[in-house]
Specification:
By secondary structure, the chain is α+β, with helices and mostly antiparallel strands. The chain is built from nine helices and ten strands. Helix 3 packs across helix 6. The longest helix has 14 residues. The two termini are 25 Å apart.
């Protein structure tokens, strides 16, 4: 190897370890069997998105892509560190064990764009809007009718966080009031106050008591998911995400992203780059579609 890379970043994502190498582009050659991807394919509010591999910068987050490359501006950027929840969106993908979609809300400011192959992304616009044919989604409507918003900056994240929880707990019979309250531990509101937000969320709980809530006319209990929820994109049901993938950043920063299929592949990458300088494991992102038996232990720095 002609010159040493400066840093190796390893991330657990989509059931695989992901390695991003901060390197000297003009002299570095990746000596691994991982092939370059032709394109990154995912869905955004039901629409197919295909990003050419040469345009996938491993340093770009999902939030940056949504806000700078699409028409959907509801998803906000607050702290940029995963602490405020303003950037929350809902991700879903097919669980290979059940062949059914699973759902999870995530902070899009922390989610790398390069990890999005095969995922369906739903923002607040994908659920509903006042001027759309379907109107407001029940989650949006209850937050509105119970005065759970003021300046509105945090509201899209509040909507997606709650929707993600309701979808993920749907098959288990829904969530309790305590569980829905805990769902918002990563969302910050700087002006409305949490009482109306939590009251609106608790109306969806299986154990909600309408007498404890401020607005007596607000509907209580779960809603008709088949009627109001967007369908999982049909094209993703047949999409196969490769076990291994490699993205090279455009421009001069020289970041290379490699997704490994197993822990053995991770150690092989470490062996290949053992003389490349500082090597760290800095973050892990769990895959909600992986079962307990499928999930492998995550290595941390």
């Amino acid at each position: 190897m002609a010159a040493a890379a400066r840093k190796l970043l390893v991330v657990w994502c989509c059931g695989c370890f992901v390695l991003a190498v901060d390197l000297l582009l003009d002299v570095f050659v990746l000596t691994s069997p991982f092939s370059e991807r032709i394109a990154l394919v995912f869905a955004l509010n039901g629409e197919r998105v295909e990003v050419n591999a040469k345009d996938v910068d491993p340093t770009t987050t999902l939030n940056e892509y949504i806000r700078s490359k699409t028409k959907y501006k509801g998803t906000k950027l607050g702290c940029g560190e995963g602490g405020c929840g303003a950037c929350a969106v809902v991700l879903s993908r097919i669980d290979t064990a059940t062949n059914e979609p699973v759902y999870v809300s995530v902070n899009s400011c922390l989610r790398p764009l390069a990890s999005m192959d095969g995922w369906a992304v739903t923002t607040t616009e994908g659920l509903g809007a006042v001027d759309s044919k379907q109107g407001l989604h029940p989650v949006q409507e209850r937050l509105m009718t119970m005065n759970a918003t003021q300046c509105g900056f945090c509201t899209p994240g509040m909507v997606c966080t709650l929707y993600g929880k309701l979808k993920s707990s749907q098959k288990a019979g829904g969530s309790s009031m305590a569980e829905l309250e805990a769902t918002y531990d990563g969302n910050i509101c700087r002006c409305t106050g949490y009482r109306p937000i939590l009251d609106a969320a608790k109306t969806f709980a299986r154990d909600s008591d309408i007498e404890d809530l401020v607005c007596k006319s607000t509907p209580r209990g779960d809603y008709d998911h088949k009627k109001y929820d967007p369908e999982f994109p049909a094209f993703l049901k047949q999409h196969k995400t490769p076990e291994t993938a490699c993205f090279q950043a455009p421009g001069e920063n020289g970041v290379k992203w490699v997704r490994a299929a197993s822990i053995a592949d991770v150690w092989a990458q470490f062996a290949a780059h053992k003389n490349d300088g500082d090597v760290k494991l800095v973050v892990c992102i769990p895959d909600p579609t992986a079962s307990q038996t499928q999930t492998q232990p995550c290595i941390r720095a």
